[in-house]
Structures are given as structure tokens and as C-alpha cells.
Amino acid sequence: MLRTRPPAAPGSPYPVISGRAPLEVTFNLCQSDDPDESEDAPEEGDTVNWQFHFGDDGTEPFDADGSFNANSARVCRTSHTYTEGSYVATVSVTDKHLEDQGRDVTGMARVVEQVAIEVSGGGGSTSFKNAASITSLFASNNQFAGNTFDLQASVPLQVTGFDVNLATAGGTHTIAVYYRTGTALGAESSAAGWTLLGRDTAVVGAGLDAASSVSVGGLTLTPGIVYGFYVDLESYPSNSLRYTNGGPATFTNGDLSLTTYHGKGNPVFTGTSFLPRQWNGTVHYVK
């Protein structure tokens, strides 16, 4: 079994590298190894090929006919300079078995990792000018403390805030928003891999099936990458987060797709999961 060590960039999976153009990114897989190697079988430790696809141009690990291209895979460290834009770079490590047998090899003869690259203009940060939003629904028939859902952008955009559905009007409540790179489905019961995007401690309930504003944002979404979200009413049971039975359901508007998954109990992550439940809310963003 192959492994890359260290990963192509800090974080896992799909780490994000960002900066201003021109942005030089170094990919270093020189310490990758094959744990199958041992004193009794040194021939098993045969990690010999590395491949880099930069997301804008460069080489591919396989030729058009599917056969392995080893001619340009002898360098374990390389750099690439990116212009303004959003990219997904792919790196791969292959062992000798894959080189010998090409497309017929299965299993762990090839390990692939991907890295998101966000490059703003050389004069400053990426300029988002147009405000927009996507809403799932506000037609609840159930409630508890949290919800999970996925977002996937088709254009570069930045999340600026959320609306949620609280059971009763009035009062001040605390909403925390967590995100992860990769789907929320299957990750809803563990804090591992999640990052706190922010916490709003002054959310005022607008009442049943109305939009209660949550001032949490600032996350830039890379097009084509799935991000999982977990919205949690930390002050439960001061109020209840309303949702709708059924799903999963996907809502799209051309810029963004939103797929609903779980209702969640209290406390965050370790509370009971209910699948499927549809998050009632709005995601506000600029593009």
C-alpha cells in the first residue's frame, strides 16, 4: 500500500492554498513511501513515480489510451506559478507495479491527492461585487438543535451569512456554523475534519417558518469542490431549529447547489442523527 508523506500541502483532504497572483506553489512528495517494504522483502518498497497535474496545464498521470506515462514522472518535487483564478491541482504517487502493468492494476498501486488553489488578483483580494442567495425552504414540520447540508459552487463565490428557521419569535440565541471540505454525509457524528466558520451569539428569532439572520460568513468556495456544513443551535433548548422531514433534496440556482441531509440533536456532533431531514434556510453570498 502506497502513502504520500508529507501530503502535497498542509491539511487533508482537499487542502486549500490561497494567495495573490502570481502565486508560486511547491508540491513536494519526495518522502512518499511504500509501507510494504521490509527487511525481508525490500523489493516491495518500490515507489518510483510521481505525477503532477496543475489544474491549468501540465501533465496527466495517464496517456489518452489509459496507459501509464512514466516518462515525465521521475521528479518528486516541482513548483508551478498560477495566475488569478481557481484551480484544483492533482498529484499522484505510483509504484513499479503500476508502471509495469498500466491500466490493469487496481488497489493501492496509485495514490491520488487533490489541492484547491485560490489566486486573487495581483493588486489585492478577489473582488466579489454581486450579492445573491439560495434558499432551501421554510416549510417546517419538525425540529431539534442542528442540521447538515452540502454546498457546491459552479462559480467563485464567498459565503457572507445565513438565515435559519427558529421555532419561536424573540429572544437572543447562539448559532454556530461548522464546515468541512468534502460531504457532510457520513461525517455528521464526529468533530474530526470540521472547522468552526463562526458563531453568532445574538440571533433573534423571527418566528416559525420565517428567516432568522445569522451573521457568520467569510468562506470562499472553490468551484467544483463539495463543502459540508453543520448549523447548530448552541443555545438549545432556548429555541428549536426547525426543519422538514424527507429528502435528501438538492436546490440549485446556477451559482450554487445545496443538498440537505441530517437533522441533529444536542450536543453538537454527538447528538442523535436523523436522516433524512431538510435544512430550512438561506445561504447569502457574493460573487
SSE map:
Elements: E1 16-20, E2 23-28, E3 47-53, E4 77-82, E5 85-95, H1 96-101, E6 110-120, E7 131-135, E8 142-144, E9 146-153, E10 157-165, E11 169-181, E12 195-206, E13 211-214, E14 219-221, E15 226-233, E16 241-245, E17 250-252, E18 256-264, E19 273-274, E20 277-279, E21 281-286
Parallel strand pairs: 1-6
Antiparallel strand pairs: 2-4, 3-5, 5-6, 7-21, 8-16, 9-15, 9-18, 10-13, 10-14, 10-21, 11-12, 11-15, 16-20, 17-18, 18-19
Summarize the structure.
With 287 residues, this protein is mostly beta strands.
Structure description:
Residues 1-13 and 99-108 have low confidence and may be disordered. Helix content is 2%, strand content 48%. With 287 residues, it is mostly beta strands. Strands 9, 11, 12, 15, 17, 18 and 19 form a seven-stranded antiparallel β-sheet that branches. Strands 7, 10, 13, 14 and 21 form a five-stranded antiparallel β-sheet that branches. A four-stranded mixed β-sheet has the order 1-6-5-3. The chain has two domains: 16-120, Immunoglobulin-like, CATH 2.60.40; 131-286, Jelly Rolls, CATH 2.60.120.820. The two termini are 42 Å apart. The protein has one helix at residues 96-101, and strands at 16-20, 23-28, 47-53, 77-82, 85-95, 110-120, 131-135, 142-144, 146-153, 157-165, 169-181, 195-206, 211-214, 219-221, 226-233, 241-245, 250-252, 256-264, 273-274, 277-279, 281-286. The radius of gyration is 22 Å and the shape is elongated. The protein has one helix and 21 strands.
